[in-house]
Amino acid sequence: MIKSLGIIIAATAILSANENPKGVEGLSKETRALLADEMKHIEKGMHHIFSSIVKGEYEEISKTATDIHNSFIFAQSLTETQRAELKANLPQGFIDLDRSFHAAAAKLSEAAEFEDKAAVEENFSTMTGLCVQCHSTYAAQRFHAFSEQ
């Protein structure tokens, strides 16, 4: 059963006003570009992981999941200004989902290293669920199907 959690957010999405009135819209152009790059990297990686899972390519799964884990925006070499900007504008719920997503990517990588098919499937499902929850919570205006729920 896919867990009801989600993470990937589009950089142009307007975040939920209930948690933070600024959200992504309050970020500088440069910081929004970093976030958008991370989201594109994650989307491409998720597609690659899916393809690798159905082929049983555990080494590829591990490598790509590690790449996703390492793309964690708060772990990147951000300037102090950008770090403060993210913390001031992004709601805590978004940050928590992002951290959970990247932690799940690390678990997926480890499961793939051990060729643990069930754990690979479970962690990929968790990551997918985190994407859905984040999009439905923080990017429903960009992903219209979620705004209708």
What are the SSEs and their pairings?
Blueprint: H1 29-55, H2 58-70, H3 80-89, H4 92-113, H5 117-138, H6 144-147
Helix pairs in contact: 1-2, 1-5, 2-4, 4-5
In short:
This protein is mainly α. The protein has six helices and no strands.
Describe the structure.
The protein has 149 residues and is mainly α. The protein has a single domain, classed as Up-down Bundle (Four Helix Bundle (Hemerythrin (Met), subunit A)), CATH 1.20.120.10. It is built from six helices and no strands. The chain is globular. Mean pLDDT is 82; it is low at 1-21.
Per DSSP E runs of 2 or more residues, the count of β-strands stands at 0
Tell me the CATH topology: Four Helix Bundle (Hemerythrin (Met), subunit A)
Question: How much helix, percentage-wise, in residues?
Answer: 55-70%
CATH superfamily: Cytochrome c/b562
Biggest β-sheet: count, sense, barrel? none
SSE order, as H and E? HHHHHH
The CATH class is Mainly Alpha
Number of helices: 6
Q: Kindly state the mean pLDDT as a whole number?
A: 82
Rough outline: globular
User: What count of structural domains?
Assistant: 1
Structural class call reads mainly alpha
CATH architecture: Up-down Bundle
Roughly how many Å is the radius of gyration? 15 Å
List segments where confidence is low: pLDDT < 50 over at least 5 consecutive residues: 1-21
N/C terminus separation: 20 Å
Strand proportion: under 5%
